[in-house]
Amino acid sequence: MDRIYVDHAATSPMHPKVIDKMMEVMNSEFGNPSSIHSFGRGARHIIDEARAVIAKSIGAEANEVIFTSGGTEADNHAIFGVAHSYKQNGKHIITTQIEHHAVLHTCQQLEKDGFEVTYLPVDQEGRVSVEDVKKALREDTILVTIMYGNNEVGTIQPIEEIGKMLAGHSAKFHTDAVQAFGLENINVRNCGIDLMSVSAHKINGPKGIGFLYVNKDVKLSSRLFGGEQERKRRAGTENVPSIAGLLEAVRIAQQEMENKAKQYNEFKSVFTKILSENEVEFFQNGSLDYSLPHVLNLSFPGTNVEAMLVNLDIAGIAASSGSACTAGSIDPSHVLVAMYGKADDRIQNSIRFSFGLFNTLEQIERVAEETSKIVKRLTK
């Protein structure tokens, strides 16, 4: 039985070209990028090239890109860094109830340190209101952190509108773009974004590497202390092979973005069409108009998320839920709770299918057919 992976929002397989590039660099460039000799200069050249290409892909300048160990560190660095750099101006932060835990848990830690955080609600499509952001804004607000696209339901937030609204305020604007980067055309200048987090392993790059965009006018306190790497903003010898892999992944993503979006939207259409043809009852969670192309979150009334995932796995299909399944218990998805409330059945019966590299139309058709069989079996 061929296994089918439709959990790309969790992590994605590395692109063969990324693997080749990393192997090439591991074989040829072992120097410390901080060394002034030829070995160091060779490694430094790779980092400089990666920084320039990545900056160009988001409309930024090369010196505004900081390499990190991934999205979590980038989120932590952005939020803690701004909070401690600007606390003399105020201690109020605005975020939403559906952020990734790398943002939510960081904000909760800051609350313990004396900061005040406003967690904005979202509508039933998972979208925050620009007006709610405006109403929450205060004179002592120093940071607004709102994700670009949600990792569970795929809803894209009104980032550009929020950025324009914040233009006359001193608060810094951070967005977690881990799910959106590589699939959405993001220009940080046009969107008024001051800080943006990205992770390589969501775009077919290696795990353990990512970057944080920081506008050159933003002060950012360090989270790591040691050497003077990354312009004294992030200590530690740079992971050159992984940075080379990230660079290759970004290049490929930029080249294939339009075609991938078209393909994944077709997957969504075919998937839901087959479910309908098989007379399976389902509801789509998230926005139909503002959605990441690769994420499809579906509710199947009368089913249970654990039973669905186990049956899908037995059928050779790797999907996931908005819930964290640990030790036989399910913690309700904070995203779905924010959208529908704790009592809604969708909390217990929603499955996330997310598409990516190596998926084919034939695979998606098989996933939809198998899903139909499983739902019918479980709802008899």
TrEMBL record:
Keyword ATP-binding annotated: no
Keywords for this protein: Iron, Iron-sulfur, Metal-binding, Pyridoxal phosphate, Transferase
Catalytic activity from the UniProt record: (sulfur carrier)-H + L-cysteine = (sulfur carrier)-SH + L-alanine
Molecular-function annotations in GO: cysteine desulfurase activity; iron-sulfur cluster binding; metal ion binding
Top-level division of the source organism's lineage: Bacteria
Cofactor: pyridoxal 5'-phosphate
Gene3D superfamilies, alphabetized: 1.10.260.50, Aspartate Aminotransferase, domain 1, Type I PLP-dependent aspartate aminotransferase-like (Major domain)
EC top class, as a word: transferase
Classification via SUPFAM superfamilies: PLP-dependent transferases
Residue ranges constituting the Aminotransferase class V domain according to the UniProt record: 4-367
Enzyme Commission (EC) number: 2.8.1.7
Pfam families linked to this entry: Aminotran_5 (PF00266)
Family under the similarity heading: Belongs to the class-V pyridoxal-phosphate-dependent aminotransferase family. NifS/IscS subfamily.
Cross-referenced PANTHER family: CYSTEINE DESULFURASE (PTHR11601:SF34), CYSTEINE DESULFURYLASE FAMILY MEMBER (PTHR11601)
Listed name of the protein: cysteine desulfurase
